[in-house]
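Dear Dr. H.,

I hope your travels went smoothly. While you were away I took the liberty of generating a structure for the chain from your last submission, since the lab meeting agenda had it listed for discussion. I wanted you to have the full record in hand beforehand rather than looking at slides cold. The sequence, exactly as received, is reproduced here:
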Amino acid sequence: MLTSRQVLERPTAHGRPFALPALRHPSVSALLADHRALLTDLLDGLGSPLHVVLPEIFEENIGRLRQAFAEAGAAADILFAKKANKADCYVTSAAALGIGVDVAGAPELVKALAGGVPGHRIGISGPEKDDALHRLAVQHGCLVAVDSVSELRRLAATARLAQRQANVLLRSRTTAQPGSRFGLSAAERHAAVGLCGELSGHISLRGFSFHLNGYSTAERATAANEMIGHCLDARRRGSPSAQLVDIGGGLPVRYVEPQLWEDFLRQNEPAHYHGAKDFNGFYPYGGQPAAQAARAIMAHPVDGGQTLAAKAARHGIRFVVEPGRALLDQAGFTMYRVQQVDDRRDACGYAIVTVAGSSFSLSEQWFNSDYLPDPLLLSARPGAAEVFPACVAGSTCLESDMVTWRKIGFPRPVRRGDHLVYLNTAGYQMDSNESPFHDAALPSKAVIRLGGEGARPRWRLDGI
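The corresponding predicted structure, in token form, is as follows:
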């Protein structure tokens, strides 16, 4: 159920240098403001870094996205892209709210099933899946996105042995991105549709999917329109069940105010980073919210002016959408304990703050980029207000282990024992690159539910 609590708080830059304060869900603000002692106890007891995951906000995001498609007049099935976060609590919430899960391998599939998601609500989208995964998918009635004619033949053989029918999407390359390593070429797609007809006893062609890089709503709508055409062609060729168009994920998340983001991009230069690090690109942190992007995709004009949603409805097409980051927007944050502060302001104008943990627990470096929203400084002993420029380093012996390369203008000096909070890290940040490097234990995930207004937060370890 949607409530006014979902309106994000919009902090201002407060004149700090290079400031990119993160938008904050009111529940996150309440947790940080009213339950600091609980968070400190969890960090002390479970170790640094600590990932806090908030399934209630994940559930709100599901409701908001459902509403966006309904208001656009589009029939759509939501599959949570599990790769965006490993936490079991999100799968449990997905099962409770009746949405599906998108997986790419047997371990993710097993976890989705164990979390209560039925097989017919699970999509499998990894490239060139192995026979063991095929067997599980056929047994549980999952929807399998097939990347090649050879995989289609292997899947049909698996279904024949199981005396079942496999539900299939044909993943096809789009006109806009013909060089993608994922999906069938036009000639391969034509052959695959024919093969589905020949193997109809073991293959049910349910529709088409595609892989698209980037966050362009127009490009995604155009690709979806292409897939509608493929469905109509498949029906003419004897596959009447071709009624699904999977538009994938790629729904953006707004981390910071758009104007601040534009200001940042205009002033950005290597001098703003430790070691004059030069990055080629960043996630679009000031982009449009996911629900707004979904509406834009469905409202995009196709074929002479009708909307994509209207065309789909006219032809009995149902959409499948696989958001990961978008459903995890504001649904978690990461806390680090400050281990050491190397104050180099006199020598080079900024300090290096070393935290207990590493950049493996904040994964933007995987994309050769930096996680740009400012971390919050929580001080045990607040000091005098003064701008304290510092970057943030991990505690490993790697020169490149920088949690934040950018020099942050902290509002007061950072001291050993302080805490840094990185907001909105649940989507593709907190666990994508986790590693037990140096034999360090993987960070814990604390699942917190705030409950009603004034209620005491309840917490547990994820998976327990």
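Two observations you may find useful: The chain has a mean pLDDT of 93. The domain at 4-54+330-461 is CATH 2.40.37.10 (Lyase, Ornithine Decarboxylase; Chain A, domain 1).

With kind regards,
E. W.
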